[in-house]
Amino acid sequence: MLYHIETFGCQMNENDSPIIGDLLHSLGHQPAGEISKADIIVINTCCVRETAESRALGFIGSLKHYKELNPGICIAVCGCMAQKSDTAEVLRKKYRHVGVVCGTFAMAQLPYYIEQYLSDGQRIFDVEERYDREDIQRDKHLSESDNNYKAQVNINYGCNNFCSYCIVPYVRGRERSRKPQVICDEIRALVAHGCREIQLLGQNVNSYGHDLEGNWDFARLLEEVSAIEGLDRIRFMTSHPRDFSHHLIDTIAKLPNVCRQFHLPVQAGCNRILQEMNRGYTKEYYREILAHLRENFPDATVTTDLIVGFPGETDEDFAETLEFIAECRFDAAYTFIYSRRSGTPAATMPDQVPEEVKKQRLQQLMDIQNPISLAQNEKLVGKTLVVMTEGPSRTNAEVWSSRSEGGKIVLFPAVDGLQPGMLKKVRIEKAQTWNLSGSLVE
């Protein structure tokens, strides 16, 4: 049978979807190419923000007519939204055309639930929070679709931080680390399929290993992964500032294939708001970690996440954040308007900020950060960067896109013989806010 996977959400979901595809492929199913040809439709959902959940539900609802025309197909919903108990109940009662609803703890069972539904037509719901299920051994299910030059690999699941605005601990569960041997075996298998760059994924990669025997931590895991032959680049996300230690920084300094790109979400530059968010650090602590990072890696790319309009955020609180962002001089900041999520403490906090105020603050933040991003890029003009080629630009086939070690998009004129995943040198000639451009250096 033919399958199609529709993905909503973050890097974790983007990584889960190909794993689901590999599992389906191992059972003899093939990619459909387009949804209209699919016998199996999997919707991998997100619920971090209400808009993501609404988009997913809208898409699922649009498939009702398709199911009526093709009663023999299976429509399956998985991911964080499926794990959310109230939404799972909505799917059960109001979306009768959905045959399988599978939460984040049961992803390994999803292909078998699909086959069972196709066999007997009985709807299946598995949204139980269970920690006794085995991890997916991805290296045993890799298919020909996994011959990409880069890939993502989960190193841990779940989260123990309980930031007051975040639904993740309630839908991904408590934090648990994958065994280091399983991670390394998966990466070796990916490298054997042509992969040259790995991004290690976790809700908080820095806390890796706390639940394992043998004194494992993220620094030790990086040392093991770095030693895998044929691996040119290693990236990771997301890092929680509270757990970003000096030991980790010192370890990275010794590992040349760990990219000097650090995504370190600060979320706010006001201590009162950080405390209300339950982030577990102060802006002074964050400033010290940032200084140690830049002392060791002066040319590193440092990016962050920011939330504006958190409940109770005053004009004075926001002014502190603006001042802090101007001081930190991030290469980029991914900015978000606070979105109320039912089931989180922040959803019931008093003094919710009006939407119009949130939008104004977001614009103020961008007005400060965008010129900083441009200035950071302008520092690179005249320098030669080693980039990994990605492919032709979406807007111009005569221009190729690539990424620097720091994760910056670098554009250059195409030449014969280019393939995705090559390491090339590019002399930077022009800087813009979101990318760099230059010429290949032979």
How does this model look, in words?
This protein starts with a strand and ends with a strand. It is 35% helix and 22% strand. Among the domains are: 125 residues, Rossmann fold (3-Layer(aba) Sandwich); 113 residues, Transcription Regulator spoIIAA (2-Layer Sandwich), CATH 3.30.750.210; 58 residues, OB fold (Dihydrolipoamide Acetyltransferase, E2P), CATH 2.40.50.140. Helix 9 links the parallel strand 10 and strand 11. The model has no long low-confidence stretch (mean pLDDT 94). With 442 residues, it is α/β, with parallel strands linked by helices. Helix 9 runs parallel beside helix 10 and helix 13 packs parallel to helix 14.
Question: What descriptive keywords fit this protein?
Answer:
Transcription Regulator spoIIAA, globular, six-stranded parallel beta sheet, alpha/beta, 442 residues, OB fold (Dihydrolipoamide Acetyltransferase, E2P), five-stranded mixed β-barrel, Rossmann fold
Numbering strands along the chain, what is their spatial order in the largest sheet?
2-1-3-4-5-6
Main sheet, how many strands, which sense, barrel?
Answer: 6 strands, parallel
What is the CATH class designation of one domain?
Alpha Beta
CATH topology group of one domain: Rossmann fold
Supply the CATH superfamily name of one domain: Methylthiotransferase, N-terminal domain
- Beginning-to-end CA distance, first to last residue: 48 Å
Radius of gyration: 23 Å
User: Strand tally, please?
Assistant: 19
Structural class: alpha/beta
In percent, how much strand structure appears in the residues?
15-25%
Shape: globular
Write the CATH architecture name of one domain. 3-Layer(aba) Sandwich
Task: Please work out how many helical segments DSSP would assign.
Answer: 14
Q: Low-confidence runs (pLDDT<50, min 5 residues)?
A: none
Query: For the residues shown, what is the average pLDDT?
Result: 94
Amount of helix? 25-40%
